[in-house]
Design goal:
The chain contains eight helices and no strands. It is mostly helical and 141 residues long. The protein has one domain (2-107): 434 Repressor (Amino-terminal Domain) (Orthogonal Bundle). Helix 4 (45-55) crosses helix 5 (59-66). It starts with a helix and ends in a 20-residue tail after the last helix.
């Protein structure tokens, strides 16, 4: 249970906030936040959301740490870095993650899409006109 508490403490310290400042920003009591950080209390999803707002990080990051949500497949840490950056607003984080995920989707097109792109970029050689099957091609120059 202290895993989430340790994570919250780490994020709070990184943000340069005291327990009292974070408790006030999150709308929880100072002793309650202290108990969460020490692993004595397990916060609800609602409390985690309030703490996330106070820390200006994604609630999803706290949910994953608390075991409420499963972690998503590895994304080279970019998504996690954006979501935990204390200098970004929640809206900025959402937009950056959406942009990042759209680029990842584009970078991994389906086989059908890849085939269409390949054919479009490298069209097959044109068949010679007429009924000749000899394969001789006349040089127009």
């Amino acid at each position: 249970m202290s895993g989430i508490g340790d994570y919250i403490r780490q994020q709070r310290e990184q943000a340069g906030k005291s327990v009292r400042q974070l408790a006030e920003a999150a709308g929880v009591s100072n002793p309650y936040l202290s108990q969460i950080e020490r692993g004595l209390r397990k916060p609800s999803a609602d409390i985690l959301q309030q703490i996330a707002k106070g820390l200006r990080i994604s609630a999803e990051a706290l949910y994953v740490q608390a075991g409420i949500l499963e972690d998503r497949p590895a994304d080279s840490g970019v998504r996690a870095a954006v979501l935990t950056d204390p200098h970004l607003t929640e809206r900025q984080k959402q937009v950056l993650v959406e942009i990042y995920e759209s680029f990842r989707r584009e970078a991994q097109p389906s086989a059908t899409t890849a085939e269409v792109i390949s054919v479009t970029r490298n069209p097959p050689p044109a068949e010679p006109d007429g009924d000749s099957e000899s394969g001789d091609s006349a040089d127009p120059s």
